[in-house]
Fold these 3 entries.
Entry 1:
Amino acid sequence: MNLHTLAKSLGVALPLVQMVVGLVALAAFVGLNAVLLVWMERKVAGHFQRRPGPYEVGPWGLLQTVADAVKLVAKQLFTPPGGDRTLFWTAPFTAFLPVFVMLLPLPWSHTLTAFPVNLGLLLILAFAGLNVLALCLAGWGSNNKWALIGAARAVAQSVAYEIPLLLAVLAVVFLTGTLDLGLIVACQGDMPWEWLGASQPLAFVIYVVCAVAETNRAPFDLPEAESELTAGFHTEYSGMGFGLFFLAEYANMIVVSAVATTLFLGGWKGPVLPGPWWFLLKVYALIFLIMWFRWTYPRTRFDQLLNLAWKWLIPLALVNLLATAVLVELA
Amino acid sequence: MTPLQLYQLAALALLALGLFGLVWRRSLVGMLISVELMLNGAGLSIVAAGQLTAADNALAQLATLLVMGLAAAEATLVLAIVLVVVKRFGHGESQDIFELRG
Amino acid sequence: MQCLDSVRKQAKSLWSLVVGLRVTGDNMLRPQITVHYPRRTVESLEGYRGHVQLVGKPGDPAEPRCICCMMCVNSCPSACITVQVKEEAPPPPDPAAAAAPAATAKADAGATDWSERAQVHGGRLIPKTRDGQVPPPEPPAGADKPAGKAPAKAAGKGEDKAGDKPAKKAAKKAPGVWSLDFTLCSLCGTCVAVCPVDSLEYSSNVYLAGRSREAFSGMDLLARLRARAGAAPTSGEVAE
Amino acid sequence: MNQTLAAQLLFALYALVILAGGLAAVLARNLVRAMVGLVMTLFGVAGLYLLLNTPFMAFMQILIYVGAVVVLIFFAIMLTRSPAGGEEAKPRAGRQALLAGLAGLAPAAVLGAALLANPLASATRPAEVELKLLGAHLLTSYVLAFELISVVLFIAMAGAVLLGFTRRKGQ
C-alpha cells in the first residue's frame, strides 16, 4: 500500500504517517541490530583473541544474544534501597528513547529517510547530549558511590569531547553549506576520493575519536570501567534496566557510525550496489573499527583522556575549522 | 484568546515560577535553576512575538540565541562561584553566607 | 628544535597506535589456537602440573622407585606427605631402626624443625640434575648427606644413621604407605625437585574430581600407581 | 484530524509539561529532581518552539540547555555536596512562602493583565526563517551582538577557570 493512500484514508498528514512507519521500522531495526551487534562484538572479540567466540547456541552462535536477552528479561528488577526510585527508573529510558529521534533523519538511500529534516544534523547533535543526562540520573539514582563516580566521569568526558566533535562536524558543514544530511550526501561522489573524508581527513579522525568517547566505548569507557568502578553508572541495574542501557549503547554506536558515514564516507553512495547496502556496509565497517579499537587499546587514564580532548583534539579541530573556512572563502 | 497571548502566558508562567523560585530557594544551585527558568520564559516570549506578529522573525530568533548564549555564560560563572563558596563555607546554601553584607 | 622533537615524539606515539591495530589485526586473521573442548581435547598435557604421583620402576611399573629417604616429607612446606616404610621389606639389621622412623614420620611431619628443613633444602637443591638419575645402589654424592640427615632428625635417633647405609646396600627400602593430603598441597613442586631417585612427578590428570573432602585429604598414591600400572594409561581417571 | 486542533492539543501538552516541570524545578526538595524538572521545562519550551515553526531554536534549546547548562548544573549539585537534605529540605516559614508567592505573582499579574487587555493581532501560521538568513544576519547587521556574546562567553570561561583554579602546593 502506498503511504499516500494510507495517509489519505486515515485523514492525517503524510509526514505523520511517514514518521510513524519510520519509527516502527527503526524500532525493529534497533532491536534486531542490537542482537546482531552483540553477537558481532563477541565474535570479533573472539577472533582478536584467536578463539571462536560464541558457537554453541544456534548456527555460529547466532542465537546466543537471543538467549541472553531472554535471560535479561526474566531477571528481577531491583531498585537499590536508599536510591531515588523515580530517577533510577527514568534513566534507562532517557538513555534509550532519544536514539529513535537520532535515527529519524538519517538518509539510508536516495529516497529512504524516516523523517527528512532540513536540520537533521543539528537534531542528532542535540539529542546526543541527552545520553549524558541519562548517565547522571542513573549514577545519582543508584545511591552507590561507584555509580556516582561513573556519572561524574561521564559528565566530564562528554563535555570535553562534545566540543571537538561539534567542531569537526562544523568543518563539514562549512564545506557543504547545509545541515540536511541528505544534501550533505548529495555533495559527495560515488568514489572514495570524492567523499568528504578525503578532503577532511583530520576532521574525520577527530570525529571518530570523539565518537568513541561519546559512546563510552573502550579505550574511553571510563564511566563504566569495570576494573575500577565495578560497572560504573549501571552497577545497580538488573534485568532490562541494564538491558536498555545496553541497547542504547549499541544503538548509539549505530548512530555515530551512520553520521560518520553520512558526513565523511559518502553515505549511501557507492558503485554497483544499491544505496542502502552501501550505507549498511560502511556503517558496519565503522562499527568493526570501533570494536577493533576496543580489543587493541588499553583503557586510558582519566587525566590522559581529558588532556587528549582539551590539549590536542580541540586545538586541532579549531585549526582544521579555520583552514576549512579559509579554503571555502578562497574557492 | 489569540495564539500570541497563549504563548506569552506560557512565558509569563515561566517568569513567575522563576521569580518565585529565586526567593524560595535557599541554595545557590536552586537559584540558578530558577534563573534558567526565567531566561527560558524570556526566550519563548521573544520568539513567539517574532513569529506571530509582523516583527522581524530572524531578529527574534537571533535575540533568543543570544539569550541562550548568555544563559550558558551565566551558568559557567555561577558554577565557578558556587565552587568558590563551597570551598570557603563548606556548603552552597545562601542562608549562612553573610560575608557579602555591607 | 625542542618543539620539532616533541612533534616527532607525538608522531611516533601516534604511529604506535597504528602498529597496535596491525598487531591485533594480524592475530585476528591467524588461525584460532583454542580447541572446541567437549568435542576435542588438547593432545599433550606435558606442561600440566597436576597432583604429585609416584613413578614406577622401569622393570616393574606397579612398584615405585621410592627409597623412603623422607626428603619429600621433610621438604614439604605444607607437611602434606606421609610415607611409611613397608614392614615386610627385607629386614634391616635392626628392625626397630626401620620401624621407628616410619612410625614417627607421620607425627613428625607436621612439626618439622625449620632450621633443619632449610638445610635439607639447601643441601639438596644444588646437585640435583634431571638426567642420570637411574637409582644406583648408592644415591648420588650430593644426596648422601641430607638423605642421611633428614631421617636421622625425623627419627630423632642416632642408630638410624648406622642402619641407613646397610639398608640401602642389602635391601632397598620400599614404601608401604605413600599418601598425599591434597587438600593441603600447594603444588609447589619441592618434593618433585628434591627426590633423589626421581620417584615423583606431576600427574597430567586434569579431571581430578571428587564428592567429598576426604577423597583428597589422604590420597593413596601407591594404589594409584598400581591402578595405572594395571590399567592402560588413561587420562580420564577420577579420584576414588 | 484538523491541523489547528492538533496544534492546540500539542500546545496544551507542552504547556502542561512546562508547568509540571517548572513546579518540580522550583519546589522539589531534592536538587537533582529540581534539575529533572528543569529538563522537562526545557523540552516543553523546545516543543513550543517547534510549534512556532522555529525548529532551529528548538534544537539549539536542547543542544545548549540540556547538553551544556543542565550538565553544568549537575556538576554544581555534585560539587556542593548537599543535593538531598540540607537547607532545601527544611520546612519553611509560612511568611516566606507568602513573600515568595508575592514575588512571583505580582509581576505575573501586572504583565498578564496588560497582556490580556491588549490582544494583538497574531499570525496563525508562522513562517520558518531560513537558516542561511539567520547566519547572514549574524554576520552583517548583528555582528556586534554576535561578537559581544562571544566575548562574554570567553570572559565567563576565563573567569570560571580563574575562580576555580587552586594553586598547587609548592608553586
Entry 2:
Amino acid sequence: MLKINDLVCGYGNLNIIKGISFELGANEIKVLLSLNGGGKTTLLKCLSGLIPTKGGKITLEGKDISNSSPRERVKAGMLYIPEWGIFPSLTIRENLILASSATRQRGNSDISSTLEYFPDLKNRLSEKAASLSGGQRKILMLAMAVASGSKLLLLDEPSSGLSPAYVDRVLDTVKMLKEKGMTFLIAEQNTSFSEISDELILVELGNIASRGKYEELRKNDEIKRKFFSL
Amino acid sequence: MLVTKGIWKNFGKLSALKDVNIEFKEKGIIAIIGPNGAGKTTLVNVITGALREDSGKINLDGKEINRLPPHARIRMGISRTFQIPRPFSNLTVLENIRIGSLFSGNSNKREIEEDTERIMKLLGIKSIEGKQAGKLNTEERRLVDLGRALASRPKYIFIDEMGAGLAEGEVISLSKLIKKIQIEEEMSLIYVGHVMKLVKELESPVAVFSEGSPIFQGSFEEVISNDEIIKLYLGDRYAKN
Amino acid sequence: MDALILYALFVGIIIGLYYAMMAVGLNLVFGVLKIINLAHGDFIMLAAYLAFWLYFLFGISPLLSLLVVVPVFFLVGVLLYYTMVKGLLKKKDIETTSIVAFFGLSIAIESAAALGFGNSYRSLPLNFLPLTYVDFLGFSLSVVLLFVAAISIIVLFLLFYYLNRTKGGLSVRAMMSDEETARAFGLNVNRIYATTIGLGIAVTAVAGVFSPYLLGAIYPSEGGLITIIAFSVIIIGSLGNPAATVIGGLVYGVIINIMDIYSPGWGNAVTFIILVIIILIRPNGLVGGRVREI
Amino acid sequence: MKFNRNLKSFLILLAVLIVFYAAGPQFYSNGAFFETLAVFMILSLSFNLIYGFTGYLPFGYAAFFAIGAYGFGIGIIRNFGLVQSILMGGLFSLALGLIFSPMLKLRGAYFAIANLAAFEGVYYIISNQSLASITRGPYGISTSSVYNFQQTYWVSIGVLIFVVILTYLFRISNFGLALKAIRDDPLVASLSGINVGLYRSIAWLTSALFAGFSGAMFGWFLSFFYPESVFSINYSLFAIVFTIFGGAGTLIGPILGTGFLYTIYYSVGLFYPLYFTLIFGVLVILLILFLPEGLKKIISKYLKWEML
C-alpha cells in the first residue's frame, strides 16, 4: 500500500532521516521504535508532507506522492495524526465534521456512522474538545481518523502521557479499526503496540537499525539490550 | 522534611488537588504515579511555587514556604525538571548548568564552577558544553534540564515524567542514572510519572494519586498486587491476571 | 437617571457597535494567523479615501461605494498575504517580526497617502440620507450614527454567521484552534490564511468608509491612532477571540462617549489611561480567562 | 580567554567611537548629523537593554525619549540649571518607567499594545492645555537659553560612552546571563532561582533612564520643540529598527545598525525629502523579511565571528 524508498528528510540543512526504505501492506500494523526520540516524528511528518522530502520516493498505492501537498496525501487516503491532533477550541461535533470533510470535496459530512464505534463521544458532542481528558482526546483523535475515511493512519505516540488503563483503550480501538480494514504506521514505545504489530521497525540515527517481528527481535541480544533491555 | 498539609487547588469547577497531605523524607527516592488528571503535576507546580494553592500549607523543615516565590524556594533546596524538557535554548549547555548553580544562593565562585563541572560529568554532557541548547536532541535536552535542576544543590528534586517516549533499554539506563544521582548528590528525589517500567526499576516506595489526592503508599509490589489500584490505574485487563 | 446619562449611554452603545466593526478584522487576523497588523488603521484611512474619491469624482454615495470598496480591499488582503505575510509566518518569532514589518507597512502607506492625496482633511457628506437628525430624549441625534450602527450590526452578523455556521468558517476556526492538526487534516492553509486576511481587511474597509462620521475627518496619518484604538477595543474584549470584540467595542464606545460629554479636554488622556488599567487588570480581556503569570 | 577577547573588542569599539565622533565633523561639517546620530545611538542602546536582553518590545518607547526632553525642558524654563535639567530628563523618564513597570507582567502583544496606549496617554497629558503652566501644553518648550552646540555634542558623546560601557557590563555579567535566561523561559528562570521580577525591573528602569538622557540631549540640541516633535512613534521605530538591524542583545549591533540606517535615512531625507519616509517604511519590511536577525547573523555566518 505504502512504499518508501531511500527517504531523506529533515529541517534546514540538517538531515534527520537519512535514507529509509520499507513497505507497508494493506491492513498491516507496523510500529516504529527509535532511540533517543530520534526521528520517528520527523519520519511521520515527512510521510504526511508537513516536512518536505529531500530525497527518495514515497509511493502510495502505486502513485508517487513524494512531492504532493499534505492535502493531496490526505485525499489519497493517508492521514497523519500528531501527538495531540485535535482542535481543542472546537466542539467534538465540529472536530468530527471537519475530519469528515477533510477527504471529501463537498456535501457528506455524516458523522453518525463514526459515532457508532465511539459511543462515549455521543453524549458530549456539543462540548468543547478542550474539556476532554488526555485519554479521551486520544480516542477523539481516532474517531476523527475514522470520520475522515482514511485507509492508512500515521499515528504519533498514541499512548504518550496516558495512564495504562487508557493505553489499553487506545490499543483496543486500534485493533478494532484494523479489523475494519485500516492500515497503521505507529510511532510508539509502549510494547503493547509492538506486540500487536506485523512488523517492528527500529530506527537509530536516521537509519533503520533492524526490523522484524517483535518476538524475533527480542531474541537478538544487542537489540534486546539497546531497545528492550528485558 | 518537606510536608504538605491540606493543599487544595481548583481550576474552575475542577479540583486538581483535594486536601493533599504528603511527606517527603530528607533522603531517598519516592515515585508518584496515578492516572491522567490525578493532580501529580499540579502538586509539583504548587510545591515549587509555579502555581499558588487555594488553601493549605507547605512546610520545609518546619518553616512555612507557601508565600515564597519560586526563586526563593530554589534557594531553600526545592528544584524540579519538566515533562517536556525546557532548557534555555539560546544559552549553551554550560551556561544552562551554571545558571542553576549561580542563582541558588551559593556565592562562592569556585564552588559554582566545581558544581557545574561535576554535574556535567555526572550526566555525561561535558563533551557538548559549548553547544547551544536549542540545537540539542531530545535526550540531550532532557539531561540539560536535569543538570540545571541538579546544579542548585537541591534537597528535594522533582523529576516530572522523564521516561515518556523512551525505548525500554533507555528507561533502564535512565533509572540507573536516577539512582546514581540520588546516591552521589544525597537528596530526596521524587519521580512523578507513568512509566511503570521506570517505577519498577527505581525499587522505591510508590505513592498513588487519584482524583487529586494520594490514595495509597507502599512498595511497587504492593501497588501491583492491589486490585483496586490496578483497576483504577492499569485497567481491568491487568486485574484479572 | 438623568437624560444626559441615558443619552450618553445610548450613543456610547451606538458608536460602540461601530468600534466593534472597526476592530473585529484585526482580531480575526490575530486569532487565526497570530500576527499583529499594525497597519490596521491605515487600511481604514485608505478605504475612507477610496469612498471619498468615489463620491467626489463620481458622486457615488458611501453606501453604494461599498460595492467597490469591499471587493477591492478583500483583494488587497489576499495580495498582502501572498506578498508579505506568507514570508513572515516562516520566521522564528512571528509576533515580533510581524509587529515590526507591519509597522514598516504602516509608515509606507501613510507616506504614500500623504504623497498621493496631500495633507488636507477630507470628509463625506451627511446628506446622502434623506433625514439627518432626530430628537432623542431632548437631544438631537444624528441619523447617520444610527445608520452606521445598523450597518455595523449587519456586517458583524454576516461575519459571525460565516465563522460559526459555514464550512469555510469552520476551517478558519480550526486553524485558529490548532494549526498543525489543521495541516495534518489537509486543510488548505494558504487559502484559509489569505481568505482570513481578505475578510478581515474587507470588514475593516467597511468601517473605513463610514469613518468620517465617527472618527472624524480623513487625513493620511490618522491610521496610527486608529490602530491603537482598535487594539484597545480587541484587548478589552479578548485578544484572539473575534466574538468578544463586540463587548470590547461597546465598553470602549461607552467610555469614550461619556468622557467626551463630561470632560472633553481630558477625554483622550483619560481614555488611554483607563485602557492601560483594563489591560493590566484583565490582560485576557473582559471575556477571556486569566493569563498565566511570569 | 573569551573574557579577554571580549574586553579587547570592547576597547577597540570605544576607541573607534571616540575617533569617529571627534574626527567626523572635520570631514563632514554638518554637526547636526553627528549630534542626532549620537542621540539615536544612545536611544537604540537603551532600547536594546530592554528588548535585546529581555525580549520586551515596547512600542511606546518614544514616551521615555519624549519625557526626557520634557524633563530637560521644564528644568531649563524653571531655571534649575543645565546639569540639574539634564538629570531631570533622566529622572522624569525613570519615574515614568516606574509608573509603567506594572506592564512588565504582560507578554508579547499585550505588552506592546498597553505600552502604545500608555504612550498616547502620556502625550495627551503633556500636551494638554490645562497643564500649560507646567509643560507649556501644546505651545512647545524653548531651551534656547542654554543652546551651545559644542557643549551639547560632547555631553551627548559622554552619555553615549557611558551607555556603551553599561551595555558591555550587561553583556558579560551574570546579570546579563540571567536576563538572557529570563528571555528564553521566564518560568524556568524563576525556578532556577532568578528573581525574575526584580531583574526585569532593573533592566527596564536602566533602559528608561538612558532613553530619558537621549531625549534630554535631543531637547537640548533642538532648542525649541512641540509635543509632536518629541512624542513621535517614529522614535520608537528608530530604536526598534536600528537595534534589530544591527543585532538585538549585542553591544556592537545597535551601534552599527544606527550608524548604517540613520545615515541612509538622513541621506534619503536630504536628497529625496518627499519620499524618505516611504522608502524607510519599505526598507523596514524588506529588512524584517530577509534579514530578521540583522547583521549579527551575517557576521557570524560569513565572518565566523560572534558579535560582542
Entry 3:
Amino acid sequence: MTAAPILEVEGLAVAYGAAFAVRDLSFSVPEGGIVALVGSNGAGKTTTVQAIAGAMRPRAGRVRLAGAEVAGADCAEMVRRGVTLVPEGRLVFPQMTVDENLRMGGLNARAAPNVTRNLARVFELFPRLAERRNQLGGSMSGGEQQMLAIARGLMAEPRLMILDEPSLGLMPKLVGELFGLIQRLNGEGITILLVEQNVRQTLQIADRAYVLEKGRVVLSGAGSDLLDDPFVRKAFLGH
Amino acid sequence: MSARALMSVALGAAAVGGLAWLGTVLSPFHLRVGLSIFLSAGMAIGWYILGGFARYYSFGHTVFVGVGAFAAALTLQTWRFDGWVLQVATGVGAAMAASAVLAAVIALPILRLRGHYFTIAMLAVALVCAEAASAFPVFRGSIGLTLPDVAPPSVRPERFFYWMSLGAVTLAVAVAALIARARLGYGLFAIREDEDAAQMLGVPTTRCKVLAFLASGTITGLMGALYALNLGYITTDSVFRGALSLDMIVNSLVGGMGSLFGPLVGAVVMTLLTKVMLGDFLEYHLAITGLIVVAIVFLAPDGLLGLAEKAWRRVRGGNAGGGADPR
Amino acid sequence: MGETISRRETLALAGAAGIAATAGPFRPAIAQSTPTLTFGGTIPFSGRWAEIGQSVHAGYQTVVKYVNEEQGGLDVGGRKVRLEIKVVDDASDPQRATTLLQRQIDDGVQYFLGSYSSPIILPQAAIINRARRPMVQAGGGADAIFTQGYRYVFGMYPRASRSAFPAVDAFEALTPKPRTFTVVYANDPFSKPQGEGVIARLREKGMEVIDTVELPATVQDVSAMLAAVRAKTPDVLMCVTSDQTSLLIARQVAQSQTDLKMLFTSLGPQATSFREALGKFAEGITCISTWSETFPYKDPIFGSTAKFVEYYKKHNNLPLIYHQGTAAGCIVAYAWALQQVGRVDDPNAVRDALARIDIESLYGRIKFTPDGDGDPVLMGSSVTQVQGTDLKVIYPQQLAEARTLWPIRPFSQR
Amino acid sequence: MLQTIVNGLLYGGTLSVAAVGFSLIFGVMNVINLAHGVFVVGGAYAALALWTGLRLDPILALVPIMAGGFVVGAAYQRFVIGPAVRRGSPVAALLVTFGLSLVVVNGLTIVYSSAVRNVSPAYAFFSVRIGDVTIDAVRAIAFVTALVLIAALALFLRTTVWGRMIRATAQSELAARLCGVDARRVYALTFGVGSAFAAGSGVLIGMIMPFTPAEEVQWTVYAFVVVVLGGVGSPAGAMLGGLLLGLAATLTQTYVGPVYTNVVMFMILLAMLLVRPNGILGSAFRASR
C-alpha cells in the first residue's frame, strides 16, 4: 500500500439508541484503490458506511478525508467533498424518471455546473439508461435500477465512491458485469469502498479487505491473501 | 401465578377497595370528579389494549363510546325494565354486545391497514357512525335520547356511578393485564416491535389483532354505556366526540405508553387538569390544554411515567442514553 | 342530606387524595358587611357554543352590575343584598358541565343560571332537580327538558316544538296571504323539533307545505337544495337553521337569484355581522327574536327595556342580541322571586315564587307553564324583519315598529 | 342534473385546493397535520382582515396571505414539527399539531369571537345563467383560482429543482440526502408550500361561505377524505379527489337528502381506505406500500 490514504477511520463508534452497531472500528482506504468491507449480516458494514457518508452521526471516533477531519459532517458536505454512497437496496426514486434521478445525483455545487457533460458520460457508460431516459425509476428491473443508482452516484463526480451491497439480488451474469464495471470506474481514477456479501468476487478485485464482526474489524489484509485465509474460507466461502 | 403477580393483584385489590371506600365519604363533587376520572381511565385502557399493546393508533375510538351509549339508550327505551340491576345489566350488556359486533364486523378489513392508514380509517368509521346516528331517524341522534335514571333511590346517583365506573375500570384493567400476560399479549408486543417479523416467526398476527380489537372495542363500549347512563341524555354530539378519541390518546401518551399505568396516570392528571381545574380559566382553557399537550411531547416524550423513570434512574446514578439522531 | 360529610372533612380528604387543587373558590360568602347572593352555573366560553355563551354571560352580568353599582344591591326583606355571578367554562361539553355544576352545588351555591344548548342543560337539569335548587335558564329549549317532571328548572323559551309558532302566525296575518311554503330545518336537538313544530302549525293553519328539507347540523353548500326550491317556487322559504347555515342559505339564495316572496331564517339576521355580510341582500329577510332592544316594556329593575339597552351599551362592546335580553330576564325573574320570598336562603320558596311569577319585565311578560318552559303565547317570540340596516319588529301587531315588507324585492332585481 | 354536476364541480374545486397542502405534507413527510384546518381558517380570517381593513380584494389578497402562510408554515416545521418528530415519533408530531391547533383556535376566538364571518366582495352576489344552469360568480372565480393554484403547484413540483428535491425526499429521504439534499430545508419548504396552499384555500372559502374558528376541524377532515380518495402527495390526486367528493356531495344532496351528505362522504373515505388505501391515482411518491 503505497498511495496516501484518501479515507482514514479511527475508533469509529455508531449506535442506535443504546445499542452500539459499530464500536472502535478502524481502517483506511488508499487513494485510487479498491477496499472491501466484508462480513455477515449485522456485522455493522452498512452502519459504518452510512456514518462515513454523513447519513448517521458517529458517537465517537475520527474520520479523515484526504487529511481533513470530517466526522459528524452531514451528507451534503460529504457529497461536496467528493464522497458518494450508493446505498444498499439501490434506493432509486421510483416515481421519478431516469433523467430526473440522474439530475438529482448531480445536485451538489461542485457537480451542478457539469450536469450536461456528466449526463453524456453516464449515458455513454450505460447505454441502457439512455434508452430508458424517460421511464420511471420504479418501473425498471433490478439490474437496471442498480445501474441507475451507480450512475446517479457518478453524477456527483465522486473521488471516493462507496458501494453498499451492489450485487444484492442481481442475476449471476449481471454480478459479473457489475464487478467489471467497478474495476472500470476504479481505472478511471475513482477510489472504491465496497461493502459486499459476495466475498469471493469481492476479494478477487479488492486491493485490501477488512472482515467485520459485531461492529469490529477481526481480520484484514490484501484481498488475495484473505481468499486463502482459513477463517475466511470457513466463514464466507463455504470450505 | 408468580409471587410478583400475586403481589400486584393484592395491591390492585387494595387500591380498588380503598377507592370504593372513598366512595362512601367523598362529597358529591368529588364523586363526580372521581367518576369522570374512572370513565376517562376506562376509555384510555380500552384504547390502550390496541394502541398501546400493538401500536395500532385508533383515532376514532369514540365510535365505541357512541355505539355503546346509543345501544344502551335505545334498548332501555324499547324495553322498560324495573329495578336497577336489570336496567344496568340490559344497558351495559347491549352496549358491550353492540360494540363487540361493530368491532367484529370491521376488524378484518380495517386491521389490514397499518400506520396512519389505520388511524385515518378508524376516524372514518367514527365519522360514518356519528353521521349515521344523526341522519337516520331511527337512532334519534340529532334530537337526542333520554335514558332512564337507573340509580337506585337509596343511593345518590353520583355515588352510584362512581362505584359503577370504578367497577368498570377495574374490569378494564384486569382484562388488559390478563391480555398482557397471556400469549395474546406477547403476540401484540411482537406486532408492536415489527409486524412482518412477527408474522414470519409464526405469530398469528391477524388473530391477535382481531382479538385485541374486540376486547378494546367492547371495553370502550362498556364505558360508553356508563357515560350515557350518567348523563341521562345523549345526542350524537355528546357521545361521538372527536375530543373523546383524542382524550384516550392524549391520556395514554401523557401517562406514558410503557405500561398499563400510563393511561391510568394520564387519565387522572388530564381529567383533573382539563375538566376540573381549568374550568376557572374561562376562555383560555383550550389554549392551556393545547400547550400542555405540546409541553408533554417536548419535555416528556415518554410520558409522565417515562419522566419519573428517567428521574429515578438519574437518582440511582444510571445513565440514560440518548437516542441516535439520524435526522 | 345526612350522608354528605362536612366541608372540612372533604377538604382533608381531597388533600389526602392529592386533589386539593380542585376544591373550588366557591365558598358561600358569609362574613361580609353586605350579604352576597351567588348565582352559579356553567357557560360555554369555548367550544361549539362559545359565541352565544358570551352573549348569555353578558346579559347576566349587566343586570347584576346594575343592581350592585347603581342600586347598592337588591332589596330583599328590607336588606340590601349584593348579587354575584360565579360561572365556569363548560367548554360545550356535557360531562364537564355536570361535574362543574356538582362542585357548585357541593359548595353551597343555591341559585343557578343556565348554560347554553339542550345537551348541556338536560343533564344539569337532572342534577339541579335532585339537589332542589332552582335554575332559570335561557339556553335549553328541547322539549325533553320540560317533560321529565323537573320542578326546579325554568326556561325563558317556550319548548322547541312550540317556539316558532309566532313566525307562522305572522305569515298568516299577511295580505295577501302566502300560500306555499318550503320548510328547511337543521337536524339538531333544537332546530328539528322547532322545524317540525313549524310544519305542524302551517298545516294546522291550512297553509300548504310543498317541500321539507332536513339539513345536517353544518353545511358548506346548499346550491342543490336551492335548485329544487327554484323548481318548485314556494312563496316563502322558511329555514330553521343555525346562524352559520342561515348566512350560507341567504348568500346562495342571493347569488343564485332564487326569487322568493319571503325568506325566513330562524337565526342569523339578529346579528349585525349577518346583516353586514349580506348588505342590500339582507333587506326583507325575517327571523324570530325572542327579544328585541326596541321592546316597549316596563321593567322592575331598570324601569324599561330602553333603559336596560342604554346601560348595556354603555358597559359592553359585545353586540346586543336577543340572548342578552333573555339572559337578563332570568335575573329579573330571580330578583322578583327573591323579593317575594323576602329572604335569600330559601331556594324552595324561591322556586315556588318562580312557578307563580307573572310580571312584565325588560324581556316582556315572564310567566312559566306548569312544566317550567316559557308560556308559548305570552313569552313567545316577536317576528322581526331586516329593513335598511336594522331589524324591525313586525309581529305581533301591538309591538310592531314597521309594516312588513311583503313580498320582498326579488333578489335578481337588487 | 346538469346543474347538480356543475355545483358539484364548483364545490369540488374548493375542496381540492383546501386539501392539496395537506396532501403534500402527508405525502412528503408522512406527517398528518391536524393543524391543517387552522391554516385554512387562518387564511379566511386574514382575508377578512385585509378586506375589512384595506378593502383588498380577496383574490389579490391571496398573494400576501399565501406568502404569510408559507413563512408561518416553514417556521412551524422548523421549530415545532421537526423537533417533535425527532424527539418522539410521527404520533407525537400529530399530537403537537393538535395541541397547537387548540391554541390558535382559542386565540382566533378571543380576537374575532366565534361569530360567523364572511368576506363579501362586490361580486359575491352575482351569478351567470347559461341555459338552465346557474353559476355563482364567486364560486366560479374560486374554482378557476383553485385550478390555477393547483396547476402552478404541479408545475413547481415537476419542473423546478426545488420541486424535484421535494419529490425525491418524499420517495426516499436517505437517497435524497445522499445526493446532497438538505432534508431539513426540504421539509421546511414542503411545510411552507403546504401551509401557503391551506391559507390560500381559506381565502377562497372565506369568499364563498361563512366561517367560524371552530370550523378548522371540518377542513382537516375533508382534507383527509380528498387525499385518501385521490391519492397522496400529488396535486392531480387532490384535484381528482376534490372534484369527485364535490360531485358526491351535491348528488347526495339532490337525490338522497342533504342530511345524508356527510354520511356518504365518510362512507366513501372508509370504502376507499379498505379497498384502495393509496387512492385512485395511488401514492405519488411511493410505488406501493
